[in-house]
Amino acid sequence: MYAMILAAGRGERMRPLTDTLPKPLLKIGAYCLIEYHLLRLAAAGFNHVVINHAWLGAQIETALGDGQRYGLHIRYSPEGEALETGGGIVNALPLLGTGPFLVVNGDVWTDYPFTHLRHKKIDGLAHLVLVDNPAHHPQGDFALQQGIVQLSEQSRLTFSGLAIYQPKLFAGLTVSRFSVVPLLHKAITAGQVSGEHYQGEWDDIGTVARLQALRERKVTLPVD
């Protein structure tokens, strides 16, 4: 299974830190944020990783190289202007093989065991990892009932940015700037999205304050 790390965001809420450095390269302890994903993907048995980028993307390629030192083969999907989650995935599809692939947001930190998704078999179009609602997103995104993601307004959880997608979720789409969320809503309505509730460590590193809070926790590289 291929994996993709979404790393094309501008990081506006992280300014001025992201004025000269792309958000995925911000350090948390011994590693850059994106390196936690790379090292744990390699440990989980992934071999091929695709990383999209836009803002200061050349720095990401220089910092990470071809992935050899992480035990990975990294390919890049550059975007002149960030294409958001949906557009970024569509643009990268030629690099992601023909089967289901894992996607993880580059601006989250989690100890979720990637091995669970590497071996996950899905019957529908997508499988989402949902987490408890953080203080900055109390309304949540989706409900979960017996392993099936729902659009109910009751008992909603937050989408973690970690998912498996089938290529056919994006069938017929051309490269443009759009979010993956409308595609998910359509697939959920059709009963084609499974999910799970993960209650381990997960942080959305979307602001300087959240970055600093994670740094102060002195996190280490999670082990699956």
Automatic annotation (TrEMBL):
Q: InterPro entries of this UniProt entry?
A: GlmU-like, MurU, NTP_transferase_dom, Nucleotide-diphossugar_trans
Q: GO molecular-function annotation terms?
A: nucleotidyltransferase activity
Tagged with keyword Nucleotidyltransferase: yes
- The residue ranges of the Nucleotidyl transferase domain are 3-126
Recorded superkingdom = Bacteria
Q: Which UniProt keywords apply?
A: Nucleotidyltransferase, Transferase
A Pfam family name for this chain? NTP_transferase
Write the protein's name: Mannose-1-phosphate guanylyltransferase
